[in-house]
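User: I'm writing a short report section on ligand binding and want a predicted complex to refer to. Could you take this sequence and AHE and write out the structure as tokens? A short remark afterwards would be nice.
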Amino acid sequence: MKTRAAVAFEAKKPLEIVELDLEGPKAGEVLVEIMATGICHTDAYTLDGFDSEGIFPSILGHEGAGIVREVGAGVTSVKPGDHVIPLYTPECRQCKSCLSRKTNLCTAIRATQGKGLMPDGTTRFSYKGTPVYHYMGCSTFSNFTVLPEIALAKIREDAPFQSSCYIGCGVTTGVGAVTNTAKVEPGSNVVIFGLGGIGLNVIQAARMVGADKIIGVDINDRKEEWGRRFGMTHFVNPKKVEGDIVQHLVALTDGGADYTFDCTGNTMVMRQALEACHRGWGVSVVIGVAEAGKEISTRPFQLVTGRVWKGSAFGGARGRTDVPKIVDWYMQGKIEIDPMITHVLSLEEINKGFDLMHAGESIRSVVVF
Ligand code: NAD
Ligand code: AHE
Ligand code: ZN
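Assistant: Sure. The structure tokens for the complex follow:
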């Protein structure tokens, strides 16, 4: 079949809207019509050539929602007509990682996924006879895409696609980092670095679980109003702090934060986030994705004295199990999504979404097909 898609033909070049050939689903695979997709900073990072796994030409996008149109042989958990959210972190419930109950990082198809391929080692997309690669196993910047069954969360049908697509990455990442990875307790002091599409979800989850001080840190002053809208109690612009930002945050939290979250991808900020934690117990969660080749550092003494550095991918969520629950939280009003969707674009306008993100003017741009 044919599908309209925004293709990343080369790094650092705008996406091009073209008609691609798409092969149907093979055994264990599902054809999904994508109805809406968010644009996450990770898409921009890959398009800008910063991802060590970046492959071109490919179809980016990993924050989608859509409808199952066809299933391959042996597929039992979804059927045509079901509403689904694609999962870049699948949940096979059979691999060593899934069975460990210690991680959400299912390893069933990670190797082929990182090479832009389906589990059988081939791609379903092509353009004028040349292969076009999948991205993060999702490729939601295509109107139709093929995914393995284990990479689909079935969701309720009354959830609007335009908002629920954001649960495919940003919402789950931010909310899950608080509830699954850090397990923030009521009364905690929390610092969030980077108040974008991820950081604001960390803020709203910190509010939801009853955190006390919720301190947002961003170099863009326009983010203050956004943070306060979702529960931030204090705002700090590091550019306007006289002296050391870490000392400033430690003073603001009476000795250091219980939990800090990096939502910038900047390795200097990751260090600040770790060092702003309370001696003895503060936990810093790295969510931001750093450019290829970047490394983090701190004095080991920071860890010897009880601070904990950890990371979180997809908010520690097991997608097929947890994503439908987060959709419920949204539908019940426990978390907000709609106000964070600042721009709704057509596929033809998708490059504008990247420009808005780079200019710091959007929280989430969503493309509707
Ligand atoms: P975004 O562009 O919407 O937001 C980033 C924010 O960080 C902006 O408000 C920006 O002003 C702020 N910022 C930049 N440099 C800063 C600095 N030095 N100090 C303080 N603030 C600074 O991006 P997003 O979509 O929210 O994504 C944030 C990061 O999270 C990206 O690195 C993205 O790749 C990553 N991410 C990780 C996961 C995961 O599973 N771990 C999932 C989604 C996104
Ligand atoms: N491919 C990169 C790393 C990119 C990365 O860390 N991705 C996050 C999700 S970001 C979503 O917006 C993730 O889930 N990582 C776990 C995984 O298995 O990819 C690199 O450095 O090679
Ligand atoms: Zn993302």
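A remark for your report: The chain has a mean pLDDT of 98. The domain at 2-168+337-368 is CATH 3.90.180.10 (Quinone Oxidoreductase; Chain A, domain 1).
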